[in-house]
Amino acid sequence: MKIMECVPNFSEGRDLAVIESIANAIRSVDGVKLLDVDPGKATNRTVMTLVGEPNLVVEAAFRGIVKASELIDMSKHSGEHPRMGATDVCPFIPISGVTMEDAVRCAHQLGEKLANETSISGYYYESAATSPQRRNLAEVRSGEYEGLATKILQPEWKPDYGKAVFNEKSGATIIGARDFLIAYNVNLNTKNTRRANSVAFDVREAGRVKREGDPITGKIVLDENGEQVRIPGKLKHVKGIGWYIEEYGICQVSLNLTNIRETPLHVVFDEIEKSANARGLRVTGSELVGLVPLSALLDAGKFFLQKQGSSAGASEEELIQMAVKSLGLDELSPFDPNKKIIEYQLRDAKKARLVNMSLKAFTNETASDSPAPGGGSIAAYAGALGASLATMVANLSAHKRGWDARLEEFSNWAVKGQQLKDDLLALVDEDTRAFDGIMNAFGLPKDTAEEKAARKQAIQNATKYAVEIPFKTMEKAFEVFEIAEAMVQVGNPNSVTDAGVGALCARTAVYGAWMNVHINLSGIEDQNFKLEMTNKSNDLLTKANQKEQEIVALVQTKM
Fold first, then answer.
1. Which of 147, 171, 183, 538 would give a disulfide with 85, using CB separation of 3.0 to 4.6 Å?
2. What is the domain range of residue 149?
């Protein structure tokens, strides 16, 4: 899934009707989910969190900003939080299947749209900044709304988008691109805030102030410029303090993780545990405040499996459970992955209707008088079974007695197999959706010449997609051969036939998908596309037949 997060901050935290109107403007974009609306009365500011595909998120943010400009008058605004406009800041954060470059692209796309369609102007910050001096949000926002009329006319503060004209009602909007921030608390078996702070100082990037003699009461050491000398903490991109939570009767190390790519969740937990143990304390669990990307928990699950000498080639569900238990995320309250993981919040159950069925229900559905699921979905499922068998052999090999030194080798194969299995399972439902797309195109109106032309084009587009999906199944199923062959050659000898059956399933998947490619190619009018897909699919089928024969022959020599 391509998921971009956007967190616009609107300069209204008291008028619930205004806040709801802005939220509804964001909700009006299909495919975007508004995950959170967090108003603050003292700050007179509301933070909204929305996620979805990048282009859709840009449109939703645009609608929210436009609605805010209609309803919020900055000339009458006051609040404790620094602010420059009706929509003060609007950062884009890459979550899944997208990069920071994509987030920067979204930021600039939004700025251009605001410049072209509204009278709002403003600046880009952090990764979207157009110059180094504009990266820092505090620097860009200095002077706030009250100083904007003068600031916007200064050459060095010419807006990045829009005109250098003071918009009295809306102010300016600062659009950015930054990494995902995780608010994360680690629980300690102490009520002593000073000791919790000591752990926080050990790990946070800013570390602690250097003192002479006693680290608590000693005189602060100053450098030649009179500035405090600091002892840096162990982890970059981590901010933290210790505090006491009366509700739970424990202290926590409260953290903000600003770059989980460079400093992942599990690394932070591990370092806090080391620091706590060195101080005679114990970590009893932790909690996530807000939502977390799926990758953070999958990486944590793999980390803890590897740490205990187990294969990281586990299913997504197993990895999440390992992460939750290892991090103690369910100590203070139940941890529901469906509510806490961003990608799960966006899942459409209809898109995985077949995969979520029981084996019996799926078989019955296939045997019914409905044309879908058909051969394409079954081919993808056969490929998923082949990947599962090859992965099973890799995991058995990773845990074979006496083969401890080869754990990483087989774990890597198992991780690859799990990914192939998941990809092929997704194609089970996608193949059925491709068929439905053709049926929907045939159902379009055809009364006028324009309607006939549009219907014909829609049928061609849908038919091309119905070719591309089974071809993708062919490609993914063909990748299964590599794992199956390796497991026959070097895997657990007791499971050699399991790997062989995996290869047979892979060949069935390739051949079955090939049939679907060619039956749909018969309806394609684009001759270049038709020739290209014919040649590519035929070549892949030939290679699959050859590879299956090689693997079966190899299995027979080892039986």
1. 171
2. 3-177
